[in-house]
Design goal:
283 residues; 3 domains; 5-stranded antiparallel beta sheet; 9 helices; 13 strands; globular
Length: 283
């Protein structure tokens, strides 16, 4: 059997450990080709296509979605589904999950913002500091901490006629970090904690964040499982990012169901768990 893992052309600036899953699949007689998503290949040569590390898709979302439609039109199993990807690509999904009863970090949306409006944004949200980020984005691109005294002009210039979202800055991100729980085919696989480097708030490895393996508590599992249960169907792969709010409760920061970093190296069973889920997915 041959599978395709979609990736990106230039992987030099990213930490990718899919080789562990590819090796596990090889031990099971499954060959995996890592194919940059912008290329056109014979998709029907594959038993399935998994969206793994196309971590530049946000620069050309229409092109990326069109490529997924092309693959699906060939009748090739694709995970996650184009419908889920379309929904998850716009961070307005947070509001929808909130409406379904999932606790989320309070989120406000807008399009375009002046420097004055940006400086007033924390007060508008009732906090001293907030974070602004694109509605379509990844890798913490164009993500900024905002206070009333921020140098607003350069940030506002990044959002001219561009959709954005803003959330109160969650202090626990710096101290406790973000908790990430990974679900394969709807089943919990493993968990990590991501802590930013001193002086930063971005938890991604590419920005110097520290990745720590952890055994998830019952509290974390309950909160993350609630997110997965709110979806129409369990996806092949999903990462649930949780943070602790000032009142001590856990809330969803992001659900990554397009091309989540899966941190296979952080748990000895993670590659096998993923391979098991792929086997169930393909039947």
């Amino acid at each position: 059997m041959r599978l395709c893992f979609l990736t990106l052309e230039d992987r030099s600036n990213f930490v990718i450990d899919d080789a562990l899953a590819i090796d596990e699949l090889a031990r099971r007689g499954v060959t995996v080709d890592e194919v940059p998503w912008r290329r056109e290949v014979d998709w029907q040569a594959y038993a399935g296509v998994v969206i793994r590390t196309p971590w530049d898709y946000q620069r050309d979302l229409p092109g990326f979605l069109a490529k997924l439609d092309t693959i699906a039109a060939r009748g090739v199993p694709l995970a996650n589904s184009p419908a889920l990807v379309r929904w998850n690509a716009f961070k307005t999904y947070l509001g929808e999950l909130g409406a379904r009863g999932v606790p989320i970090v309070p989120t406000t949306y807008g399009r375009g913002i002046s420097a004055g409006e940006l400086r007033a944004l924390p007060a508008r949200l009732g906090v001293a500091e907030c974070v602004i980020k694109p509605v379509v984005g990844a890798n913490a691109d164009d993500t900024y901490r905002v206070t009333a005294k921020v140098d607003a002009e350069p940030i506002a210039a990044r959002y001219v006629d561009r959709a954005w979202m803003a959330q109160p800055f969650v202090d626990a991100v710096v101290d406790e970090g973000e908790h990430s729980l990974f679900y394969f085919g709807g089943e919990l696989s493993h968990a990590i904690r991501k802590v930013p480097k001193p002086g930063d708030f971005r938890v991604q490895e590419e920005h110097g964040g520290e990745i720590i393996a952890q055994e998830p508590t019952a509290e974390l599992i309950a909160a993350a499982s609630r997110v997965i249960a709110a979806l129409d169907a369990p996806p092949l792969q999903a990462r649930v990012d949780l943070v602790r709010l000032p009142d001590g409760s856990l809330a969803l920061m992001e659900l990554e169901a397009i091309e989540p970093s899966l941190y296979f190296r952080m748990h000895p069973r993670a590659p096998a768990n993923f391979a098991d889920a792929i086997a169930r997915w393909l039947g």
